[in-house]
Amino acid sequence: MDMTRRVGAEFFGTFWLTFGGCGSAVLAAAFPALGIGFLGVALAFGLTVLTMAYAVGHISGGHFNPAVTIGLWAGKRCRAGDVIPYIVAQVVGAIIAAAVLYWIASGKPGWMPGGFASNGYGELSPGKYNLMSCLVMEVVMTFFFLVIIIGCTSKGAAVGFAGIPIGLGLTLIHLVSIPVTNTSVNPARSTGPALFAGGEYVSQLWLFWVAPIVGAVIAGLVSQWLHADEP
Is the pTM of this model over 0.90? Predict the structure, then answer.
């Protein structure tokens, strides 16, 4: 598959993840009568990955996340030449998705962006968790997300069903970590909304690049050992 189509698949996949996941928080969850709530937002993120894994995952591998790309590279599941093009496409896709979401949301009279589904620690954490708690949460959650991804796409796993546990895994991750960091595990997803929330959300963005990448790299290295017998 040529690079242009693979990069395009990563762009559209990350756009959908950011727009669908963050959109569920910014738009639907803002109306309690709709009943989406905390569980609905977590499920929305999982569904974005599940749907795009089947829609375009066969084209690019279905990363939709810079941490996943770097973690798969660390686990020798991604070519070095794909890393930068994939990450650029993912970040651009997330920023454009956030821009479209902002445009739609601002059409409601009196609407205020607030945190705009951004991630944060300290006063910007939904539960006011400190920097260390948020750092550990993001490292651990991203580590297990990569363990799930690599395991489900490894030799011996059920062929054609990887999207389901990966999507459900991301849902579970959100159920656990939304109260702590509002859940990142994805630097691109964090970057798009933060640029529109502005202020301290941008200044705290570094954590949601560093922690997911650290967790992903550790998972990639561990997975080399777990799956050492595979070609």
Answer: yes
